[in-house]
């Protein structure tokens, strides 16, 4: 598909813009330090005031300005040495002082130095006194001097190794944030420095949250260095606080190591069992229980009786009264004569009631008969039973005289 004229015009405009940008880059002055563009947000500039920079002697080892200030020896104060870059210039020049009664601070500052250059100056430094504590300010110049993050981590590890080889008590204070460098890049360097310090067993204190970018008076006009007023005052307060905290922790550790080891307490001796003395008549032990014995259960008491010999049980006579007789003896004799009560008699019964499981044959219903016919059949089948029934005296029911009298009165 052929392209339109607009595409050709756009390509020509892009080529002209590339040539223009290449000419601008070539005409720009070359700088040995490449700055990362700032992050979007607050202005790169600060509104604080910073003192005029004085001239310091140049070091022959690194070719940078270098100066060391050691306070006079005081037996009542502990000596703390600060090692860092240009952030300590105001402390070295005496613009900012440390109002502390128990600590005296000395500083070794190398403006513009990275971690590798600080290591060189630290190793070759000659101090008249041995510091009680050393504070290494994390090098913020590695943000622009180091090509990669791993390179900055290696240089910082060498710096801590050199400091620990000379003095046993060392801690690291985070660098103040910059306004002209990407905040995400600064956070990556902080995390890497913290990781290196943790591997070396050195305490690392972060202070980035104490310097909000919304307060432009904390920085000077360049956006890199802190102002002499609120900026350096805040940094000095943080140095005092963390130095005291680190010395207190070191004192506690020394006291714990100086104390003799506490011997474990011996296990308590086993206590003898109390001796029980029983006086009086002794109770005879219970006879062994036979599981085959019978148990008699009576109200509120229970006793056992021995089982009969041979395991046989003798039945006793029953004293329960029997059911009274409901038929007269003559009738029972006649019935026994007609239908003997022999249980072994094998004639099948025709009664409706019988043992369960016996199959009963239902007979065809017989036609209804009158009372006269029933009496004739009964007499033909059991003539003796009818005569015996007739001979049995029947007791006449008594009349209710009281009811008759009551009825007569009512009439």
UniProtKB/TrEMBL annotation:
Residues 123-228 form the SGNH hydrolase-type esterase domain. Residues 1-53, 342-411 are annotated as: Disordered. This is SGNH hydrolase-type esterase domain-containing protein. InterPro entries: SGNH_hydro. Pfam families: Lipase_GDSL_2 (PF13472). Residues 1-18, 358-371, 399-411 have a biased composition (Basic residues).
């Amino acid at each position: 598909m052929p392209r339109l004229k607009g595409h050709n015009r756009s390509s020509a405009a892009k080529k002209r813009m590339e040539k223009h940008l290449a000419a601008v880059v070539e005409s720009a002055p070359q700088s040995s330090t490449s700055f990362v563009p700032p992050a979007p947000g607050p202005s790169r500039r600060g509104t604080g005031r910073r003192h005029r920079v004085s001239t310091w002697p140049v070091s022959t080892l690194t070719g940078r300005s270098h100066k060391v200030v050691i306070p006079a020896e005081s037996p009542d104060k502990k000596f703390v040495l600060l090692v860092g870059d240009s952030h300590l210039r105001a402390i070295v020049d005496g613009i900012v002082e440390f109002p502390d009664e128990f600590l005296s601070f000395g500083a070794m500052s190398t403006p513009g130095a990275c971690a590798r250059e600080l290591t060189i100056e630290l190793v070759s430094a000659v101090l008249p006194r041995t510091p009680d504590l050393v504070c290494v300010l994390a090098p913020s110049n590695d943000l622009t001097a180091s090509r990669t993050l791993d390179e900055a981590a290696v240089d910082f590890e060498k710096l801590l190794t050199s400091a620990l080889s000379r003095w046993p008590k060392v801690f690291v204070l985070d660098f103040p944030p910059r306004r002209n460098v990407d905040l995400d890049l600064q956070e990556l360097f902080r995390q890497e420095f913290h990781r290196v310090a943790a591997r070396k067993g050195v305490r690392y204190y972060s202070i980035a949250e104490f310097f909000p970018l919304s307060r432009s008076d904390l920085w000077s006009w360049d956006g890199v260095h802190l102002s002499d007023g609120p900026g350096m005052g805040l940094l000095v307060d943080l140095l005092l606080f963390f130095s005291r905290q680190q010395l207190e922790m070191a004192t506690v550790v020394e006291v714990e190591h100086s104390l003799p080891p506490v011997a474990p307490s011996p296990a308590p001796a086993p206590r003898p069992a109390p001796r029980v003395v029983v006086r009086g008549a002794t109770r005879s032990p219970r006879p062994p229980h036979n599981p085959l014995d019978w148990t008699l259960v009576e109200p509120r008491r229970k006793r056992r009786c021995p089982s009969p010999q041979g395991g046989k049980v003798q039945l006793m006579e029953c004293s329960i009264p029997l059911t009274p007789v409901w038929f007269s003896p003559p009738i029972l004799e006649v019935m026994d004569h007609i239908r003997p009560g022999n249980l072994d008699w094998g004639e099948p019964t025709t009664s409706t009631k019988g043992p369960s499981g016996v199959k009963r044959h239902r007979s065809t219903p017989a036609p209804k008969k009158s009372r006269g016919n029933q009496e004739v059949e009964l007499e033909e089948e059991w003539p003796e039973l009818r005569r015996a029934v007739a001979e049995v005296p029947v007791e006449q029911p008594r009349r209710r005289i009281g009811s008759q009298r009551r009825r007569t009165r009512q009439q």
